[in-house]
């Protein structure tokens, strides 16, 4: 019975992510603006994730606290992985620019508009707290099966990478911009077998992204 409940909660959060992130957004954006609609949607999704998975989140937190957070090697691995992600992203951008393919995401402009319309602190909370928790619980925790079967793990990992990449893109070339963080985050989750590991990495990646936008690098 417990396993059935877990399956249904995972299915529910994936469906609700798409229904609310796209369906509800479409309904309220014309009323309160695109930027505020995005913020409201992520607040709602964050509350839904906490309500559905409060037990699982507590278990995951206790697990990582007892096994990783007291280990300096974990933080070193976290920073090294972040640096690898940033370097690979820069390499992909350089390659794209030199073959005349525009892969810099339109989402960057959306985030800039968000920070111009919504107080910056709320935009940062949305991008660096709400988004990592919501997206990691939806696209990592709820999709990737912690199974002994390498085949099942491989298939669910690939599904996670593709779906996470696709929700961020506006045009097809942007897929190649987001493939790096998508792969890195997914592999980091699989390696550590804990959603808070990928939440932390996701948050750090987004913090760097927000800082880059604030200082005008991107």
Describe the structure.
The protein has 218 residues and is an all-alpha fold. It is built from eight helices and no strands. The protein has helices at 2-32, 34-67, 72-98, 107-117, 120-141, 150-166, 175-192, 195-214. Helix 4 (107-117) packs across helix 5 and helix 6 packs antiparallel against helix 7. The termini are far apart. The model has no long low-confidence stretch (mean pLDDT 91).
Keywords:
single chain; 218 residues; mainly alpha; 8 helices; 83% helix; globular
How many helices does DSSP assign? 8
Radius of gyration: 17 Å
Unreliable runs, pLDDT <50, ≥5 residues?
Answer: none
Order of helices and strands: HHHHHHHH
Shape: globular
Gap from first CA to last CA: 49 Å
Helix content: over 70%
Helix-strand makeup class:
mainly alpha
Strand residue content: under 5%
Quick description:
By secondary structure, the protein is mainly α. It contains 8 helices and no strands.
SSE blueprint:
Blueprint: H1 2-32, H2 34-67, H3 72-98, H4 107-117, H5 120-141, H6 150-166, H7 175-192, H8 195-214
Helix pairs in contact: 1-2, 1-5, 2-4, 2-5, 3-7, 3-8, 4-5, 5-8, 6-7, 7-8
């Amino acid at each position: 019975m417990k396993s059935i409940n877990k399956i249904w909660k995972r299915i529910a959060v994936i469906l609700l992510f798409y229904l609310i992130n796209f369906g509800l957004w479409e309904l309220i954006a014309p009323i309160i603006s695109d930027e505020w609609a995005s913020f409201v949607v992520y607040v709602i999704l964050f509350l839904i994730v906490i309500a559905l998975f409060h037990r699982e989140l507590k278990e995951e937190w206790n697990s990582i606290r007892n096994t990783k957070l007291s280990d300096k090697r974990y933080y070193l691995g976290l920073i090294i992985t972040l640096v690898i992600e940033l370097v690979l992203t820069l390499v992909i951008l350089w390659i794209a620019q030199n073959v005349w393919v525009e892969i810099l995401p339109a989402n960057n402009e959306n985030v800039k508009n968000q920070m111009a319309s919504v107080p910056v602190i709320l935009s940062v909370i949305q991008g660096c707290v709400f988004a990592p928790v919501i997206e990691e619980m939806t696209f990592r925790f709820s999709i990737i099966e912690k199974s002994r079967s390498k085949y099942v793990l491989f298939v669910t990992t690939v599904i996670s990478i593709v779906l996470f990449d696709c929700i961020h893109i506006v045009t097809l070339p942007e897929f190649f911009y987001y493939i790096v963080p998508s792969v890195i985050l997914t592999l980091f989750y699989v390696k550590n077998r804990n959603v808070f590991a990928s939440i932390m990495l996701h948050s750090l990646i987004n913090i760097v992204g927000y800082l880059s936008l604030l200082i005008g690098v991107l």
